[in-house]
Design brief:
Oligomer: single chain
Number of strands: 2
Strand order of the largest sheet: 1-2
Radius of gyration: 18 Å
Strand content: 5-15%
Number of domains: 1
Shape: elongated
Number of helices: 5
Length: about 150
């Protein structure tokens, strides 16, 4: 059975949100127990998957907006909130949606941070560091590659 584009996009968006919530819970679970190398690794792995699914959800939502705006279905691969050109294309159908991720907005900054964190899967990756301050329990901190920090 072949699924139609909008139905498939909705399913993809829904599944990515479900996955990112599961990953969020895995991050919380790993950080709520005494910290060691294993829990640090589990938290970082879950954070990686969280970011991949979150950016995937943003991408699926952009493609859905592309279709909802009545744009050419063949061009939906170019749909991306961070692209000014694409946002100009959806502006006639929804100016508020087009402006949501305009450069300099809080939404655009959140997406930029999410994309940087997601893209660490292509580079040095996220690294964990244990921190211990006085009588407080050991904490796990996640360090970004220098170029992304």
């Amino acid at each position: 059975m072949q699924r139609k584009g909008p139905t498939f996009l909705f399913g993809s968006l829904h599944e990515r949100i479900v996955r990112l919530l599961r990953c969020r819970d895995r991050v919380h679970t790993a950080l709520l127990v005494p910290q060691d190398n294993q829990t640090a690794g589990e938290a970082t792995e879950a954070l990686d998957y969280f970011m991949v699914n979150m950016v995937g959800a943003f991408d699926a939502a952009a493609r859905a907006a592309h279709l909802a705006a009545g744009l050419d279905p063949g061009g939906r691969r170019n749909a991306a909130w961070q692209k000014d050109r694409w946002r100009r294309q959806i502006r006639p159908a929804s100016p508020e949606l087009a402006d949501l991720f305009a450069e300099g907005t809080a939404h655009s900054r959140v997406l930029e941070i999410a994309r940087i964190l997601r893209n660490t899967v292509h580079s040095e990756g996220l690294h964990t560091t244990a921190a211990h301050h006085g009588d407080r329990p050991r904490e796990t901190l996640v360090a970004l590659p220098e170029d992304d920090a």
